[in-house]
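# step 3/5: fold
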Amino acid sequence: MAKMAVARMAVNISVATNHHSLAEDTRMDAAAKKTVLRHFPYGLYVVTVASGGEEHGMTANWITQAAFEPPMIVVAIENTSKTIEMIRDAHYFAVSLLASGQRELAGKLGRSSEQAPQKLKGIKTKPAPVSKTPVLAEALGWVECRAIASLPAGDHTLVLGEVVEAGVESADAQALTLQEAGFKYSG
């Protein structure tokens, strides 16, 4: 009987993912959604990648640790971002954790690539040990990741990365948060 319940649940999950979202069937309170999501605690990070002789970086706030063994993280990247295609080509990326007080840097790297095509120019970076992906030399710390899977997620793509190396640049620093920076989540 338990096997039947598990099989039924698996079918229901796959059916649910093949149809439109539940939000389309109900009238969501848009103001409540924004209020609650803005109170989620978000850190601010810089995702960097190198591909075809070009280095690129962007500010991100949707990152989480996904596994301890092997160590893995997930990052959400907008489908229209230059970063997602570069990660697909390079198969590696890095995430630098911004330190409290690095709001200006988060803002600079948060601009679109069309507004700022060479966003890493003038920012102190160094090559990560395995892939030579640039990491921020003045961040709190960083992880270098091998991209192992991606999953479409609406207007973003979730990229699962296995952490292959890590470094600490400023052990005593506190992490920069979206709230401290005064940035607003909107969606």
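# step 4/5: annotate
The helical segments are 2-17, 22-25, 30-39, 82-90, 103-110, 178-181.
# step 5/5: archive (pending)
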